[in-house]
Batch of 4 targets.
Target 1
Amino acid sequence: MSDVDAIRERVRAKYAAIARAAGQGCCGPRAEGCCADGSLDMIGEAYREVAGHVAEADLGLGCGVPTRHAALRPGETVLDLGCGAGNDCFVARHEVGETGRVLGVDMTPEMIAKARANAEKLGFANVEFRLGEIEHLPVESGTIDCVISNCVLNLVPDKARAFAEIARVLKPGGRLCVSDIVATGPLPEAVRDAAGLYVGCIAGALPQDAYLALVAAAGLDEVRIAEARPIPLPDSALAPHLDAAAIAAFRESGVELRSVTLLARRPARPPIAHR
């Protein structure tokens, strides 16, 4: 098994366990800190007043509210990457209305099953959930008005491929709005190599400039950050995965984590080739 496959399987196993445990304690609806083994809550009560929020579908795994900046309109088709139990899909559905369509993709069968059950309970015929990987989206090219995602792309091993897939499925002029975790600089090697920190949304965080460069390299433009806030990272989140020396080295590096909500757009027309 390659390193990429091993990372993907660790992430899949972690989120399958969260889906199975939902409603049974630690990682139930509005769980605190599931993304970092109980030590780090990156979302708090941000969804409390969000229209369309479904408590049973909110597992507390996000780091932002991407729909707040996505400017969704009635009748649009929205794709949520790493949809989990469906919370952001249901929020998006509230925005696009009965004439719109929302598609959620997740690589964890347990999450897809939970999302489908939630949609059936709510009676939402225009919300669909598909099993698949973000690097290989089960979505037709040029069919999506807006792609959203919430604290998921940092878990994807091949981020360049993921952004290329996003560009592929967007309609010309379609847009991207994702909330994600980035770093203020390169993470120390010990942090990057800690498997538990990867599935806990930390070790996969790229430096912000590198993250934005990958978005642009995929052919998306008008790339900008709409919202940013620091993510305090206590020693208790690091201690299960790093020894004292590695934690000290991380602190000395001065690198910090932040939650950002990023906007970008697929150009409405291909660039003119100059000869």
Note: Residues 3-21 form the longest helix (19 residues).
Target 2
Amino acid sequence: MNDKVPGLLDGIRVVEMSHIMAAPTGGMMLADMGADVIKVERLPQGDDIRRSAPMVDGESAPFTMMNRNKRGVALDMRQAGGRYALRRLVLGGDVFIENYRKGAMEHYGLGEAEMRAANPKLVYCSVSGFGQTGPYAGRGGFDLITQGMSGLMSITGEGEGRPPVKVGAPVTDITAGILAALGICGALVRRGVTGRGQYLDTSLLEAGITHTYWQTAIYRASGEVTRALGSAHPLMAPYQAFPTKDGWINLGAANQSTWEKFVVALGAPELGADPRFNANAGRLANRGALTYELTRRFATATTAAWLDRLEAAGVPAGPVYDVAQMAADPQVQARGMIAEVSTAMGTPVSVIGHAVKYSDNPATIRRGAPRLGEHTREVLEEYGFSGAEIDALVASGAAA
């Protein structure tokens, strides 16, 4: 990547007052695209994720993952000086992102209406558990809670009678951050037309619901409530994972032409002629019998052998990786999805790369995550604070 080429958001300044994961993910994506993201942390301890293991040179690997490319400012919001400094930062920025409980920003004198009245160009984004309106607006939200309430846990797991299972990744946190970044980019484009910013409000609950497109469509059209199907799909078969001689393989014989190619590659043309399986409706109705027939056949060879055979036949299939295997895959490496940053002591730490490739303004990973308050003085100077003002804020404990 060429750091001399400006990013898509070069020249955009983002103030991110956030913690844990959702808003930091959104800020990270904007920073990858070239925005100057200033992460503001509350003194004395900063973001709780700073204390999450594993540690590398005393720095949290999870914190590094979500806060690379940002500059760090540390302020004590209990003190008037800290609140005053943050207000100046927000009013001098293009975007403000926060993910505290409803009413917290008003408590600090940073409410949306007040900030946008003082700076009409400001794009102000709130990320919360349940949104800023509705009967649950005052509740705190966590990924586990919103996975359950969004319906995700009812469609994840092994099936009827088994305990509810959450998606292994904190999918509502991450998706809420992605939605925030998407909304902010849209608001910035609109601001280029109108000259005015606007208020954005998204939540973990809505992020979880967003992942239920298939299941909600089925329910709204038919009244049928989709339940957990393991790795299977509610509308097509075979479309699931099967055990092989040495692991697992995912098969995506999702349409009729692929099914017909698949049974030939499998060496089981009799399955294609079986009236139970010769059309998708029959395969769905007889999913149990189909799964049995395919499972016993896949068990006869290794995952690699099956992948070679299915790829040659043009049948979509892939291995089931753990995270270490994913990181070592040549396609993952070729796409730059595993990158490295350095700790303050120079030790490399792996981070996930930016997932969108831009032809003219590539995303870059330019620096590791900031130490607590690492750029406080630098940023305040850029905002017009004098050396004496900064010294006073530090001496009082309002900044660090």
Note: The first strand starts at residue 13 and ends at 17.
Target 3
Amino acid sequence: MKKPLHVTVLMDWAAIPDEDPDFRTPPKGSTTEYDVVAALRKLKHDVSVVAAHQDPAQLLSDLGDRKPDLVFNLTESFRDNRDYDKNITALLEMTGIPFTGTGTVGLMLCRDKGLSKQLLAHHRVRIPGFLILPSGKRVHVPARLQYPMVVKPMLADGSEGIANSSLVEDEESLRERVQFVHDRWSQPAIVEEYIGGRELYVGILGNSRLQVLPPRELFFRSDSDDGPVLATYRLKWDEAYRKKWEVTFGFAQLEDVVSKRVARICRKVYHVLQLRDYGRIDLRLTPDDRIVVLEVNPNPDIAKDDEVAQSARKNGITYTALVDRIVRMTMRRSEAG
């Protein structure tokens, strides 16, 4: 880019600390919001911060006051509803302001886990057998689905609503967990066949041309019969719990032929679900090397310590360069129309 841009970083209102609304002071732990703002300032851009308030008119007014060249979109919800993330991008699309990350269509496809799985299956991407159970619907498990199964809230992110008890072995425990999801999360439950094997997280950068980053892996302790086998909320966010069960994150070591298949499938998923700029595909690699896609994450967390940033660093892309690349990709998309 020939000159610095005025970049407005748009984020959930709850992510903005009252004591440091401009993100001038480093927090105790790494956060996507602080890390992105700091990187943009390091790149000499003029940076402002805007919260996605409860009122769309206020959001439009705030953006109008700042007149940004680009919005770096870090929102995950609106009015505490994650299903409204696509509404924020729709609003941005109507303003004509370029914004980073996946657009409205891609967010809609990925947020509806049932629809995204149907689309992937149509394109011959292997997924777990699944069932959507809205509140009030009788639990009937088709014979094609096999136990054990995993019960999750359909609209949640970041392993929310996933615990060891989400893995069910029979219909009675399935009914109990489905009812818990309905009562606790007030949303449909998605029930998936449990897929054993290695859990991989594959970061991707790009649009028409994609760069697949080195896969990360969640390593479970192989000699434990009673330890966690799912990426639960507690496992993801509780370091002491991970230490207890000797669960670690690291880089996956894959045979070349398997690595190429993983990359090919992840590129396909990225295009089918219309991700943009950056994303992450979560999958399981079974003991017989079948690749099963579990989750597709548009606009994943990109804090310095998160999976995408670590994979980029493994590929020689510094964190500042990663943020710069996302900004440049967005501007190129905008200029191309």
Note: The chain has three domains: 6-100, 127-193, 197-336.
Target 4
Amino acid sequence: MTRPASAAHSDAPPDPRRWLGLAGIGSGVFMFTLDGSIVNVALPTLTQTFGASLATVQWIPLAYLLVITTLVLGAARLGDMHGRKRAYLFGLGLFTVASALCGLAPGVGWLIAFRVLQGFGAVFVSALGGAIIAQTFPPSERGRALGVISSCVTLGVALGPTVGAFIIDWVGWRWMFLVNIPVGIAAMIIVSRVIPDFAPAPARLPFDWLGTVLIALALGGFSLALTFGQRHGFGTMLPLALFALAALALAGFFLAETQVDAPVLDLKLFANHPFSAGLAMSVLAFIALASTAFTLPFFLQLGLTLPIATVGLLMAISPIIGAITSPIGGALSDRFGPRWVSLVGLLMMALGGALLSRLDQGTTILRFAMTIAPVGFGMALFSAANNSAVMNAVSRERLGIASGMLSLARTLGQSTAIPIAAALFGLFALGHAGVVDHTALLRLPPSSLLRGAQHAFYLTWIAALLGAGVALWMLLRDRTSRS
């Protein structure tokens, strides 16, 4: 059963089933983010299973993230035009079917292709989940509800390697994808029966296909340039050509968006300083989180030579802390405002990244737990507060594009972090061992792999510290404007 959109207006009592609807939306958001990082810990296994190179199997996580990054704004706009619930259910259904295909893939090429299809479904879940929750809950509860969604995002990104490690150890890598099927079906049933049928935007203006294609070329070219630069060197022709393509497409996108009646991205939104600053901080925070999630399996499994099951247990520390504290961050944001909460969260992430970069072969489990805890706690505080601030900075009819932009910030941060962290890891590990051949990376001695991981962790604290600088700037700006 669903209720009409008019019942969602601020003068009507909130739907008592809204928390069950939050569970359905949160399940979809959790699966989409989980599948963005779950395969990281499986890369050595998949390399051996398919007899492929690390450069090839790296496309298994990257193909998924690239599709989401390049199409998320178009998906948000389609949801605004045709109904967010309908678009969300379509994406969740496609994601579930593609998950089954990934679990049955006969070869690495098929797996990469099915990951692309999975990304096409996930992009609607990514773009519209937050907007549906913001539209369903009243402003007095929105921070807490978005805090739960932030918990799902944080859990999905950080818990992926943990879940993947246990699944590989117990039942094999294919079940990393097959477990999505029952969860996806259950989430679809809940969302279809509980979430209201909010009416789409009344003005049915043409969809901005030109803007969608140009932003896809810009973001896709940038991400591919980072990937091929890692493989061939950033001074070679292919990465430089891709960077040039991305720059030209981005310039064309900005020009095109000023010429159409219904742009996929209303550039006037960026004149809203809380909105644009929140997006910048989100990109930097997810660069920090994703670089940590990508590097930790190599540090623990190859550097410290721990069993994969132990790696899974240790990597569960940060997401468990994040799941517990993210709703607290949302409640603190509702009560005290998001600025200080965001700043504290980012500073804690920077502290955790700095401590991670100093770990060595003598690292104990207790020391590791105390080192990784600030990353999970800080990300949970930041994400809940920042998401609430961004969604509250726009009008109700812009909630869809705001949710899409938050999702873009997340996936852009992840797809940027993975190739950069991988490049730092490989460069310093090979340099420490005095080896040039990048195909020998996984065969290096643990001491060299540890050195590479230490330098990859630099990206964590540098990105978080830059985000904290943006948060501090917004605090000072608010204080100046009040005076």
Note: Residues 1-11 have pLDDT under 50 and may be disordered.
